[in-house]
Design goal:
Chain lengths: 201, 85
Amino acid sequence: MSQNLFIRNSVVIRDSRVWRDGELIFKNETETTLSKFLKAIYKHQNLKYPKFFKMDSLSKLGYLGAEILINGEIQDKNTALVFSNSASSLETDEAYAQTMQDFPSPALFVYTLPNIMLGEISIRHQLRSENVFFVSREFDASLYIDYSKALFQEKKADNVLCGWVDLHNNDYDVFLWQIARSGGIDFNEEELKKLYLPTHE
Amino acid sequence: MSDLHTELKKSIIEQLNLEDMEVSEIENDEHLFGDGLGLDSIDALELIVLLEKDYGIKLTDPNQGKEIFNSINTMADFIEKNRTR
């Protein structure tokens, strides 16, 4: 079945800045920690979700990116989540391993898988839709295209929220976008790379 | 309010990342779970760790938790009676 899919919107969080649809919407003026940067975005967006503060940094990045992308609400509950990164949940795995020398932290343990981020987004928006998390060496546009097309083709989703949310050694790289059957930019590798790369290099 | 009550509230806010919450906002008899402070099952595990780490109390019977972690008052009572440090 041939189908036309479109990128409806996108968010990039990188280098202490946040872009929505290519427009810079937040910038941290002073150098700060990742934790403070994430809290600054939360405050700037005027979000009210206390569970945010319990999340690990990877989930916070995914949650914030999704909130900004969808502007607070996922209208279509049949929105699938297709995410990937390269470092999995290594940052939190290491932090948890540290606590094992003393008192292992249950709160950290629950974040020692990268797809927990998808759970956090699903809980926040009451999604019971398809979700998948891939770990790949680098951002791989074709992975998202193939999987998302299959989801639409199999009628498993009406919309797809895709994300590359990577975090390692406090270096973060976040790119989220929504795909639908209408509206926006053509969903292909070239366009996807254009949206991902402008501020990346 | 005893020092222990205040200390517990501070620890809970810090350990459970209850950002934007002040010690004065937690009532001594307020339910910690459910409708009160709204803690969840992972928070319960963190409270068990807190008891052991800060007061040397190891919970042997998980069923005790429901009673002990009912409120700041019940936690403080239990700690007073069982603390080893």
